[in-house]
Amino acid sequence: MSVEGVAELQARLREFAAARDWDQFHSPKNLAMALSVEAAELVEEFQWLTEEQSRNLDTERLERVRLEAADVFIYLLRIADKVGIDLLRAAADKIVLNELKYPAGRVRGSARKYDDYG
To answer: pTM for this structure?
Structure first.
């Protein structure tokens, strides 16, 4: 997604909230709490599935996952808009930090946390 695409989507979400007079409820704190609820709903779609089942979702479950992922994305965009975070820049910066924490030659094939490498 381009910077312009993110900005357009954030503007659309701002308009959506404003048309319903919901901006009064959309503090960063409330949006973060709503994001955690939506993330939990996404997790719920995978609860009790085997690894294999989670990789091969049936059409109905895939649609539910798609919509829950969209909810998570929407709330994340709203939070970023409210506090002035450029999500694309933040993601690029975080990838650089993760590359430093997890050098491929050192961590390949391991799920351990970066501070478990000693």
So the answer is: 0.89
Burial of 78 (0-12, 13-18, 19+ CB in 10 A): buried
How far, rounded to the nearest angstrom, does the alpha carbon of residue 4 sit from its chain's CA centroid? 19
Let me know: does 13 contact 22? Beta carbons within 8 Å: no
Q: CB under 8 Å, gap of 24 or more: what pairs does 85-93 form?
A: 86/3, 87/6, 88/1, 88/3, 88/6
pLDDT digits (tens, 9 = 90+) for 67-109: 999 999 999 999 999 999 999 999 999 999 999 999 998 888 8
CB contact at 8 A, 26 and 78: yes
Phi–psi pair at 44, nearest 5 degrees: -60, -30
Which residues, including other chains, have CB under 8 Å from residue 35's CB and lie 6 or more apart?
72, 75, 76, 79
